[in-house]
Amino acid sequence: MQLWNALMNIRSIVTGILLVGLLGGCGGSGGSSAQTGTLSVGLTDATVDRVEELRLYVSGVTVKPENGPPQSYPVKLTECAGIPGETDTCNPVNLLALQGGLVLTVLANQQLPAGRYQWLRLEIDEAQAYVVEDTGLVDSKIEVRVPSQRGLQLSGGFVILAGESTDLVMDWDARQGLTNPVGQDGYILKPSIRLVDMAQYGTLAGSVSQCVDTGVVYVFEGDATQDPENMLDDIDNNEPNPLVTASVVPVGSGFGYEVHYLPVGTYTITLVCDTDGVPASDTNLQEADDEIEFIAPQLAEIEDGLTRTIDF
Asked: Does the pTM of the predicted model rise above 0.70?
């Protein structure tokens, strides 16, 4: 397993992927036989500021061919020295260290029969998963539960073309997935994951000059600028939820944000300042909306290979 730290090299071999629930094609260079292709799966994460570490023990990857039984492939996460705070072995991996565009390969160039696949599942050993909280006095480990008997399964599908390579990157948004329900022990981790088309993607970035201590940038799919009151919402059990979020962090002599691996398309970008008074996610698992102000919603067109700059 290797850390993908040279994105341009990845892009040269990446061919196809789909977003959750959508079917996509593949392309690129291969090296396999005419009846097989290769699959690689990587893991990355958006920023979150509520805990110090979120560690998951990844034991394998399972894929389901359209015309056949599920196939499982064990993984061993090694050679992780390029990840902040890690050495050669990083299982359980600190998901929160995979930020700023870092991608950890969990399955590399696995040869599979060409064809359609219905779903992909990341196998998690829940007994070895934990959160490290920053209490201000001493770090404390708290258990994490994954509310599924099937691991972290992503529905939808993807295609492996004969003689081609398919690279899937699982972009986890722990801000949306990690909850700490009142009256229950430990944290719950919901699979707030999107699969990113590494064949065509762009980056969103910008500077922030207001509420830099608490600010979070929300990214919604589509154009919501004409009706933000009804088309923008907080993170909860109700739609619409943001596609991804990004914390405001120090950048040079000021502050800014970055959102990596956005598929080509139209997005609405907005700044949220009052995160101290609003849960980062629906920690009580309630249906009610939180009162939240979306500042300066702006439209962003993401193009392949380019960085779109939007400042707040």
From this structure: no
In degrees and rounded to multiples of 5, residue 273 shows phi and psi of -100, -30
Residue pointed to by tokens 């979120």: 54
Are 109 and 40 in contact by the 8 Å Cβ rule? The answer is yes
Residues 176, 58, 45, 25: is their CA dihedral positive or negative?
A: negative
User: Does the CA dihedral 168-174-176-178 come out positive or negative?
Assistant: positive
> Where along the chain do its domains lie?
3-199, 202-309
Average the pLDDT over 234-247 and give the result: 78
Distance CA 47, CA 68 (A): 37
pLDDT in tens, 164-203: 788 888 877 776 677 777 667 778 777 667 766 566 788 9
d(CA 124, CA 215): 32
Closest CA to 9 of 194, 165, 204: 165
CA-CA distances (angstroms) from residue 141 to 56, 137, 299? Answer: 13, 13, 40
Instruction: Dump pLDDT digits (tens) for 16-67.
Output: 333 333 333 333 334 434 488 888 888 887 666 667 888 888 889 999 998 8
